[in-house]
Amino acid sequence: MQDKDNNTELHNEVQNADRRRFMGKTALLGAGAVAAPMSAAMFASMAKAQASEAGKNSPFVHPGELDEYYGFWSGGHSGEVRILGIPSMRELMRIPVFNTDSATGWGITNESKRIKGDSAHLHAGDSHHPHMSMTDGRYNGKYVFINDKANTRVARIRCDVMKTDKMITIPNVQAIHGLRVQKVPYTKYVICNGEFEIPMDNNGKETLEDVSTYRSLFNVIDAEKMEVAFQVMVDGNLDNTDADYDGKYFASTCYNSEMGTNLGEMITNERDHVVVFSLARCEAALKAGKFKTYNGNNVPVLDGRKGSDLTRYIPVPKSPHGMNTSPSGKYFVANGKLSPTVSVIQIDKLDDLFNDKIKPRDTVVAEPELGLGPLHTAFDNKGNAYTTLFLDSQIAKWNVEDAIAHYQGKKVNYLRQKLDVHYQPGHNHTSAGETRDADGKWLISLCKFSKDRFLPVGPLRPENDQLIDISGDEMKLVHDGPTYAEPHDCMIVHRSKMKPNKLWTRTDPIFADTVAMAKKDGVTLETDNKVIREGNKVRVYMTSVAPNFGLTEFKVKLGDEVTVVVTNLDQVEDVTHGFCMTNHGVQMEVGPQATASVTFTANQPGVQWYYCNWFCHALHMEMRGRMLVEA
C-alpha cells in the first residue's frame, strides 16, 4: 500500500514539476510567440523520464520539489527538536521542548507553561533521543518522544501540529538518557534509562557518601497518559535501550557494574552487561503488588537486580554504549565503546534464558571486531549493519549473518567496507532503519566535530551531520551538514507516514484551558474583544485578522497582572500572527485558528505599544496597538 501511495505522490509531483518547467519555457518565447501544445504522449514521455531519474538515489531536491523523508533531530543542549528534509538536509522547523524560545513564546505563554508543568521554571535542557510511536513495528506518525538528560524529563510531540503537548519529570532517578518506544503491537510504553546512580531515598538524610545505597532505574512510561507506569531497579548504570519486535523484551546496555563514582573506578571490570527486561514478568509483578515506593511518590519500583525473575544480565565487554535492534527482529546489538567489538544477541534465545535453560552468554551469537570506539549500529534491508567508530572516525559496514558464521569458526569476511567520516561519529541512523520498513537508501552519521570541513566561525564550531548513500554495494558520502549544538541523535520516517495539519482546530486541547477561562469570563473568543478586570488582575481578549488586532488599545494600572489572549481568525495557510508587548519581555506565536495567551506585569508606565511580530501582511508594520498604563 505504501508503494502505491509513493508512486501516486511521485506521479503527481513529476507531472506538476514538468508543467512548471514547460510553462517556464513558454514564457521565455516572449510576447506574441506561439508555443506548440504539449500532447498527452509528450507529458507521459517526460513523466517517464523524470520518474526514471527520480528512481535513482539522488541527494538533490530541486527548488519547488519535496523531500522523500522527514528527519527528526534532537537539539542536544539547545533543548529542542529539529525537523529536516531528507535527502536535501534542509532544516524545515524547530520544535522548542525543554528550552525557552522567544520566536514562538514557548516557555513564556500560559499554554506552554501548563504543558511543562512542574518544570516550567527550568529554561534549559539536553535533548538526546527522538523516537516516533509505532504500530506493529512501523512508524505511525502520531507522536515523537524525546528525553532531557539535564533535568530528568521526557516530553511528547504531537506530529499533527509539530508541537510539544506533554512533559513529565521522572521521579526517583537522575539524568534520563537512552529512550526508545515499544514497537509491537503498538507503542503502549515509552522506555528510558535513569543513568546516574543515586540513593533510593534521596532526601539528604542518609549517609550521602554510602555508594551501596545508590541505584539506577529502568523507567516504563504510559505513552498516552504520559505517566510513569513502573520502574525497575538494576545493578550498574543504564545507558541506551531498545525493544524487540515481539512485544516481549526490552534491553539496555549497562556500564559501571563496579558502582564507581569516578572514571578509574568505573572501568575496572573487564565485563559489564546488557540487562534484558521481561515485560510480561514485570507486569505480573506489578499486578501482584511486588513493588515498593520511594521519596513520597506513588510510582511502583520493582526489584530487577541480579538474581531477579524480571531481568537477565548478559555479560559483554566493559562500558557498552549503543543498543540497537535489527529490523528483522532477530538481534539486539550492543556496541562496545571501549572494546573494538559489538555483541550480537539472538532474541529468540531469550525465552530459554529466562527459563534458565541456557546461560546468559549463550545468547551471544557474534562479537565481530569492527574498529576503535564502536558506539551505535544502524541497519539496511539487506542484512547489513553500519556501526560508528568514534576513535577511527569511520563507519564500518558489516554483514550480520556473516559475522555469526565467523563467530562459529567459519572462514568468512563479515566486513564489507569502511568509510571515513568527519569527524568522531556518535549516533547514526538509516532511513526507517529502526522499523520493519528499513529500506536501505540513506544513512546519517552525526559527527561530533567538524574541524576543517566548514568556514571558521570562532572557537565554537558547528558539528557535522553527514548524509551517506547506502543504496549500492558501497557507501558514498554525498553531503556535509553543519549543525549547532548538539544534534545527539535522529530518526528518519517516510513522508507517507506523516499527516500534519495545515490549520489549527478550534477544539485543540493545547489551548483548551484558555478557552475554558474565556467561557468563565463570558467571552466568545471568535467574536469578542473586551477587557475583564478582577482587582489588580486584568484579562484582555482580542481577535486578530491580518493586518488588524481586534483591540487597538486597552488601559491598565501600573503593577497590574495582565493576561493577553489572542485568537487568530485567519483561515489561510501559513498566516501566523504574533503578539509582542514592547519592553516587557513578552512575545508569542498565534497560528491560524489558534488561541494563545501570556501573562505579565505592567511594570512600565505610560504608552506601551504591542505589535504583530510574525510577518503576516503587506500592512504588517501597521498591525499594532497601545497598552495605556496609568501610574
TrEMBL record:
<comment type="similarity">
    <text>In the C-terminal section; belongs to the cytochrome c oxidase subunit 2 family.</text>
</comment>
<comment type="function">
    <text>Nitrous-oxide reductase is part of a bacterial respiratory system which is activated under anaerobic conditions in the presence of nitrate or nitrous oxide.</text>
</comment>
<keyword id="KW-0479">Metal-binding</keyword>
<dbReference type="InterPro" id="IPR051403">
    <property type="entry name" value="NosZ/Cyto_c_oxidase_sub2"/>
</dbReference>
<dbReference type="InterPro" id="IPR001505">
    <property type="entry name" value="Copper_CuA"/>
</dbReference>
<feature type="binding site">
    <location>
        <position position="488"/>
    </location>
    <ligand>
        <name>Cu cation Z4</name>
    </ligand>
</feature>
<feature type="binding site">
    <location>
        <position position="427"/>
    </location>
    <ligand>
        <name>Cu cation Z3</name>
    </ligand>
</feature>
<feature type="binding site">
    <location>
        <position position="255"/>
    </location>
    <ligand>
        <name>Ca(2+) 2</name>
    </ligand>
</feature>
<feature type="binding site">
    <location>
        <position position="623"/>
    </location>
    <ligand>
        <name>Cu cation A1</name>
    </ligand>
</feature>
<dbReference type="GO" id="GO:0004129">
    <property type="term" value="F:cytochrome-c oxidase activity"/>
</dbReference>
<dbReference type="GO" id="GO:0042597">
    <property type="term" value="C:periplasmic space"/>
</dbReference>
<feature type="binding site">
    <location>
        <position position="258"/>
    </location>
    <ligand>
        <name>Ca(2+) 2</name>
    </ligand>
</feature>
<feature type="binding site">
    <location>
        <position position="319"/>
    </location>
    <ligand>
        <name>Ca(2+) 2</name>
    </ligand>
</feature>
<feature type="binding site">
    <location>
        <position position="272"/>
    </location>
    <ligand>
        <name>Ca(2+) 2</name>
    </ligand>
</feature>
<keyword id="KW-0560">Oxidoreductase</keyword>
<dbReference type="Pfam" id="PF18793">
    <property type="entry name" value="nos_propeller_2"/>
</dbReference>
<feature type="binding site">
    <location>
        <position position="616"/>
    </location>
    <ligand>
        <name>Cu cation A1</name>
    </ligand>
</feature>
<comment type="similarity">
    <text>Belongs to the NosZ family.</text>
</comment>
<keyword id="KW-0472">Membrane</keyword>
<keyword id="KW-0812">Transmembrane</keyword>
<feature type="binding site">
    <location>
        <position position="463"/>
    </location>
    <ligand>
        <name>Ca(2+) 1</name>
    </ligand>
</feature>
<keyword id="KW-0732">Signal</keyword>
<dbReference type="InterPro" id="IPR041142">
    <property type="entry name" value="NOS_propeller_2"/>
</dbReference>
<dbReference type="InterPro" id="IPR006311">
    <property type="entry name" value="TAT_signal"/>
</dbReference>
<feature type="binding site">
    <location>
        <position position="620"/>
    </location>
    <ligand>
        <name>Cu cation A2</name>
    </ligand>
</feature>
<keyword id="KW-0574">Periplasm</keyword>
<feature type="binding site">
    <location>
        <position position="376"/>
    </location>
    <ligand>
        <name>Cu cation Z1</name>
    </ligand>
</feature>
<feature type="binding site">
    <location>
        <position position="129"/>
    </location>
    <ligand>
        <name>Cu cation Z3</name>
    </ligand>
</feature>
<feature type="region of interest" description="COX2-like">
    <location>
        <begin position="536"/>
        <end position="631"/>
    </location>
</feature>
<keyword id="KW-0186">Copper</keyword>
<comment type="pathway">
    <text>Nitrogen metabolism; nitrate reduction (denitrification); dinitrogen from nitrate: step 4/4.</text>
</comment>
<feature type="binding site">
    <location>
        <position position="266"/>
    </location>
    <ligand>
        <name>Ca(2+) 2</name>
    </ligand>
</feature>
<feature type="binding site">
    <location>
        <position position="612"/>
    </location>
    <ligand>
        <name>Cu cation A1</name>
    </ligand>
</feature>
<dbReference type="InterPro" id="IPR011045">
    <property type="entry name" value="N2O_reductase_N"/>
</dbReference>
<dbReference type="GO" id="GO:0050304">
    <property type="term" value="F:nitrous-oxide reductase activity"/>
</dbReference>
<feature type="domain" description="Cytochrome oxidase subunit II copper A binding">
    <location>
        <begin position="533"/>
        <end position="631"/>
    </location>
</feature>
<dbReference type="GO" id="GO:0019333">
    <property type="term" value="P:denitrification pathway"/>
</dbReference>
<feature type="binding site">
    <location>
        <position position="616"/>
    </location>
    <ligand>
        <name>Cu cation A2</name>
    </ligand>
</feature>
<feature type="binding site">
    <location>
        <position position="177"/>
    </location>
    <ligand>
        <name>Cu cation Z2</name>
    </ligand>
</feature>
<dbReference type="GO" id="GO:0005507">
    <property type="term" value="F:copper ion binding"/>
</dbReference>
<comment type="subunit">
    <text>Homodimer.</text>
</comment>
<protein>
    <recommendedName>
        <fullName>Nitrous-oxide reductase</fullName>
        <ecNumber>1.7.2.4</ecNumber>
    </recommendedName>
</protein>
